[in-house]
Amino acid sequence: GAGVSQSPSNKVTEKGKDVELRCDPISGHTALYWYRQRLGQGLEFLIYFQGNSAPDKSGLPSDRFSAERTGESVSTLTIQRTQQEDSAVYLCASSRQLSGNTIYFGEGSWLTVV
Amino acid sequence: KNEVEQSPQNLTAQEGEFITINCSYSVGISALHWLQQHPGGGIVSLFMLSSGKKKHGRLIATINIQEKHSSLHITASHPRDSAVYICAVDMDSNYQLIWGAGTKLIIKP
Fold it and tell me: pLDDT tens digits, residue range B81-107?
């Protein structure tokens, strides 16, 4: 597609349920990033992929969070046993390479845990 | 001390004013990014630069590698420029972008 596409755009879920967020990066972009942004706060780095490899998972907030990427395309961020503090917008971004390239963001997936 | 510092945190100005937002960093970088986020909206990349100066419309970004400092300027500011402006750096040593806290800009008509 022309831009980074994320789905769902909005998700309301009950505490304790699992959610899966999807990101379709721009075609040909090897680097993919996941960020979290709580209301009124800055970006919080979660994880990045180079191809389908995620060398640094230290940004994931807890073991309830996991992410995978198939090939150099779609990535999914899974949150298990959601908690209210997981409520945030989850932003995906991609770039042609990891460093020194323009970063393109998706519109985000707004997650509300009730 | 944060590795990327932005100033000011908040800025309110009148339409037409010349705006400057600053970004200082303490690490070795390969590139610096300026991005814009409108309230409730997505994030848009404005500039990526590793040296010198870039201009796009009313926006100008400069970087001084020796001083580890970058500025984003907006000429003839307009209310539609109201947004959060974020500075981020590509570190030399790893592939994680380091983000500034953002500058919230409000332009009053």
Answer: 999 999 999 887 666 788 899 999 999
Examine the pLDDT at B5 and tell me if it is beyond 80. yes
Contacts of A33 in chain B (CB under 8 A): 97
pLDDT, residue B42, reads 85
**Which one of B48, B94, B99 has the shortest CB-CB distance to A42?**
B99
Cα distances (angstroms) measured from residue B105 to each of A64, B13, B18, B19: 36, 8, 12, 9
Of residues A3, A6, A8, A16, the one with CA closest to residue A79: A16
Distance between CA atoms of A103 and A113, rounded to whole angstroms?
29
Give chain A as a 3 state SS string: CCCCEEECCEEEECCCCCEEEEEECCCCCCEEEEEEECCCCCEEEEEEEECCECCCCCCCCCCCEEEEECCCCCEEEEECCCCHHHCEEEEEEEECCCCCCCCEECCCEEEEEC
- Give B27's contacts in chain A (Cβ within 8 Å): none
| pLDDT tens profile A63-102 | 999 999 987 799 999 999 999 999 999 999 999 987 778 9
Chain-chain contact of A56 with B94 (C-beta, under 8 angstroms): yes
- What average pLDDT does the segment B53-68 reach? 96
